[in-house]
Amino acid sequence: MTVLFHTRRLLMNPFTESTVARPLAEGVCSRFNGAATAMRRRKRRALLGLTLGVLTGLALPAGVHALDVNTATQEQLLGVRGIGPKTAKIIIEERSRAGRYDSLEDLSDRVKGIGPKKAAALQAAGLTAGASLSQPKNPSTPKTRPK
């Protein structure tokens, strides 16, 4: 019993037939089809929009995403980079025991495991301690209204 192979690849002889690729006829390949080109263009635009959104979120100052340590829940504290479940629990227990934190330095003094370096890293990650974003940095200088 003889088995015949009808595939072009198996019957092609490189000595008698060219192995150089030939251009395809118009409309044969779906890659050059108008609908496929439009689909690729839409995917590219969506990816660009997503990328720009992520980069914008990363480039915004940490103050936009600020979280006050005095009002944050344990779940919210877990969302801050550098705070794990144990540290979040200790922060809340210390806040309920001794009251509000005056500053991140106060947080650093009262919570074991948070030193000055870690407090600076938490501030960079968006954690604040009672200071609102609209208050001036130096509260001793009064604001004057223009007349």
Automatic annotation (TrEMBL):
Signal sequence coordinates: none
Biased composition (Low complexity): 126-135
Keyword Transmembrane helix: yes
GO BP: DNA repair
Keywords in alphabetical order: Membrane, Transmembrane, Transmembrane helix
InterPro entries: Endo/Exo/Phosphatase_dom_1 (IPR051675), Hlx-hairpin-Hlx_DNA-bd_motif (IPR003583), RuvA_2-like (IPR010994)
Entry keyword annotation includes Membrane: yes
Positions of transmembrane segments: 46-67
Domain (Helix-hairpin-helix DNA-binding motif class): residue spans on this chain: 75-94, 105-125
Domain of life: Bacteria
GO molecular function, one term: DNA binding
Bias-annotated ranges (Polar residues): 136-147
Protein name as annotated: Helix-hairpin-helix domain-containing protein
Species the sequence originates in: Pollutimonas harenae
